[in-house]
Amino acid sequence: NAGVTQTPKFQVLKTGQSMTLQCAQDMNHEYMSWYRQDPGMGLRLIHYSVGAGITDQGEVPNGYNVSRSTTEDFPLRLLSAAPSQTSVYFCASSVLPGQAYTEAFFGQGTRLTVV
Amino acid sequence: AQSVTQLGSHVSVSEGALVLLRCNYSSSVPPYLFWYVQYPNQGLQLLLKYTTGATLVKGINGFEAEFKKSETSFHLTKPSAHMSDAAEYFCAVSDRRRGDKLIFGTGTRLQVFP
Questions:
Q1: Dihedral of CA A1/A26/A110/B82: which sign?
Q2: Which residues of A touch B (CB under 8 A)?
Q3: pLDDT tens digit string along B68-80?
Q4: What does residue A88 show for φ and ψ, rounded to 5 degrees?
């Protein structure tokens, strides 16, 4: 039972570089989201998706892009990395909102450092 | 808009002592409430949840929380702390009508001393 899988686990980028954080889930969940975790700030929502082809912005979307071409995958793209994007990134998935309660399942996280 | 406030970014207890982690929420509609736990270098794991029904909910590892609508609180407790409880704990709220967009508190790091 893989659940939510994030890759890579660690990454160091230079300012201005671009990269994609991968997220895949095998639970057939329609709802997927990306959070960033920073000390003293908890988890903040970056982008989310309610199904293939549908994405929307969360609380802190600037500097990030997402797409959802399949139910399973929800990659997060950093277009031009900045030191302010140094953080731990978590991907989460759950059943479609509105269906009873939505327990979110989280990946193990990607620790990103931008120098 | 919904929000969560966790009082105390760090809580320290002795092994065997009561654990109390505080969470207050703000929501204009009946909420779903959650507590998640994060062990070092790991993702978040659901500890317990309140959706409907009984206001005292029990979770894993002996933790429980009580939903108090009049106090807009959802405090997490455990009667006797264990060394393995040392972790960061997050309270979260979502809109019961839409059931989406988990909004997290800033977290409370629990230390347990022998």
A1: negative
A2: 4, 31, 33, 35, 40-45, 48, 50, 58, 90, 92, 97-104, 106-109
A3: 999 999 999 999 9
A4: -105, 130
